[in-house]
Structure formats: C-alpha cells, structure tokens
Amino acid sequence: MSSIVGFVQSLPKAELHLHIEGSLEPELMMALAKRNGVKLPFASVEEIRRAYEFQNLQEFLDIYYQGMSVLQREEDFYDLTMAYLRRVHADNCRHVEIFFDPQGHTERGISFATAIDGILRGLADGEKEFGITSHLIMSFLRHLSEDDAFQTLEQSKPWHDRILGVGLDSSEMGHPPSKFERVFAAARDMGLKSFAHGGEEGPPAYVQECLDLLQVDRLDHGNRSLEDEALTARLAEAQIALTVCPLSNLKLCVVDDLQNHPLKVMIDKGLKVTINSDDPSYFGGYLNDNYIATAEALDLSKEDLALCARNSITASFMDAGRQKLLLAEIDGLLA
Ligand code: ADE
Ligand code: ZN
Q1: What is the mean pLDDT of residues 102-122?
Q2: 2: pLDDT strictly greater than 90
Q3: HSE (CB half, 13 Å, CA atoms) of 48?
Q4: Residue among 248, 201, 220, 242 at smallest CA distance from 52
Q5: What is the rounded average pLDDT of the residues 91-101?
Q6: Where do runs of H (alpha helix) occur along 37-70?
Q7: What's the average model confidence in pLDDT over 229-236?
Q8: For residue 170, which atom of ligand 1 is closest to its CA?
Q9: Contacting residues for 79 by C-beta, under 8 A, at least 6 apart
Q10: What's the predicted TM-score (pTM) here?
C-alpha cells in the first residue's frame, strides 16, 4: 500500500455531499428491479455500467432519475442506505450528512413516508452496526416549480425533528437559487438548515445567490466561484465550507482532467474545502477513492489531506464532543 493510500485509510472522515440515490450500485439496481417487477432498459450489470458515460450534468441526471424507478418499498430505501454505510465504513468514514430527493419518488407515486422511513431506519441501524453518526437533508429538485418545493416542504413536517435541513440539486443552468428564495426562508423559519448546489455548472452569480438569498450553511461544489475574485475572498473570509466532489467533476466534464481540478487552488486561497463522492455508483469512486485520486493528480501532501478531513468534521453538524475526539485522532496521525 502506498503511503498516501494508507494515510487516507487511517484518517477519520465525514462525508457531507452524497445523494443516497446516487449510491445505488448496478447489482442492487438489478436485484431490486427483480424483487419489485420493474422493467429496466438494461439486460445486465455490465450494460448498466457501460451506460455511465456523461458529457454533462443533464446526461447524468436523466439516467439517475431512471435508476430510481427500482426503489419502490420502504425496505428498498433501507437496503440502499445500509449498503452505502457498509461501504463507507470500510473507508473509515465516521459521520455522514446525506441528501435524498423526495420529489424523485413522490413524482412517480412513491410516498414521502416510504422513502424517508426506509432511509431513517437505515441510518439508525447503520449507527448501531458501524458506529457511523448521521444527518439527513431533503433536497428540492430545482428543475421543478417553487410550488412543488413548497408542497414537499409541507409533506416533510412530521419528520422535521429528524431532518437537518433542505438542499437544492438537479439541473443548475436556468434554475437560479432565486427561484427558491421563499421556500428556503420558510424552511429556515421551521428551524431547518440550508444547503445548495452552486457553481457546479452554473456561474458565480448563482453562488452569490446561494449566499445572499438562500443563506446557505454550506455550499455544494462551488467550483466556478473561483472565476470571481471578490466572491472567492468572501467565501474564504466567512469560511463557508465547500463540499467538493472531484471524481464527479471529472465524470460530468466540469474538469477535463483531474490534474486540472481546482481543489488545490481552493486550499491555497484559504477556502474551507471538503472532499466527497456525490453519486459514487455513477462516478466510479467512494470517499477514499476521491481522496486518493485527487492526492495523486494534484500531488497533495498529508497535511492537505488531513486539512480536508478536519474540514469535513468541523463543517458537519455532528455534536461538539464527537468533533473534538475525531480532530484529536487526526492530530495524532500527523504527530
Ligand atoms: N443530483 C445528484 N447528483 C447531482 C449533482 N452532482 N448535481 C446536481 N444534482 C444532482
Ligand atoms: Zn451533488
């Protein structure tokens, strides 16, 4: 094992940008299709994997929403969540804050309760079995209307004690954060935190809106913020955490080569960077794969990697005592 691989493995980490539906591996997709009598346009696991070639975010989203069709019953969401936690437990991941897309399910007739109850039961059992603590974030699909988002927020009320906050994902271009300013204000009034994808494909002005209009507690991706010097300085000054997803950026052609990924530039500019997998089944790598591939492409030092792991802990909403323990563990690795 190279020293970087061993070091990444030894680092306690949190994953803060993960769409649970994007962790659906082709094997589980096939098994659930069979269990639920869902017809897939693929004959084999290999055929599914071969379809995972994307030129942009939309090409991925089309196949991602299609993949969700196999998730029908509460136990499907439970199995999906447990499979993800089992996998990242192997990566020495200690805490996760995961997204789910309720509208991706309610739109096709699966109830909000079916999806969230299965995921929450998986998170609870995952903590018992793997010691991974967690929070759940419900994301609004930005290609749908403000009214649809309001209805989803209303549906979620019985679970608010178990939901950390709201997120914003799906097709970024043409759907600026301003479209959801009022929904996010309502969610905030209900005590929920705010997260949003910004600057993945969209311009710096969208990131600005995430800060000013949605008042995000964390920004998902944020790559294109670097095109605006004042915005970059503001993110650094306020220490707004960025949940960066290098292998996702490569697969969705946000970067042409991992060697041109801006993660190291972000660190050098004082941004609070974390490393995450986004949709690991579709993008070919879980948490440690993202750390290792980025370290190799950008020649990151152990200090850089430890900084990203530290940031993942302090940018999370895990309790302060647990944060302290994990940070001490990271310090011990560097000593
Ligand atoms: N939904 C799942 N993955 C996403 C991504 N990378 N960007 C926007 N929406 C998503
Ligand atoms: Zn994402």
Answers
A1: 98
A2: no
A3: 21
A4: 248
A5: 99
A6: 45-50, 57-67
A7: 98
A8: 9
A9: 28, 32, 122
A10: 0.98
Does residue 200 have an active-site annotation?
yes
pLDDT of residue 1: 62
pLDDT at 293 over 70: yes
Residue ranges and CATH numbers for the domains of the chain are: 2-334 (3.20.20.140)
Spacing, Cα 96 to ligand 2 middle (Å): 14
Alpha carbon 35 to its chain centroid, in Å, reads: 27
Using an 8 Å Cβ cutoff, are 127 and 133 in contact?
A: yes
Which tokens in the block code for residue 57? 């975010």
Please write the tens of the pLDDT for every residue from 206-226: 999 999 999 999 999 999 999
Structure tokens at 314: 């302090």
| pLDDT tens-place string over residues 165-175 | 999 999 999 99
Cα separation values, 116 from 51, 75, 136, 281, Å? 28, 11, 9, 20
Amino acid at 166: V
Two tokens, residue 32: 């659930």
Q: Is any atom of ligand 1 closer than 6 Å to the C-beta of 280?
A: no
Residue among 2, 58, 51, 8 at smallest CA distance from 26: 51
Which residue from 65, 197, 254, 276 has its CB within 8 A of the most atoms of ligand 1, so it is best to mutate?
A: 197
What's the whole-number average pLDDT of the chain? Answer: 98
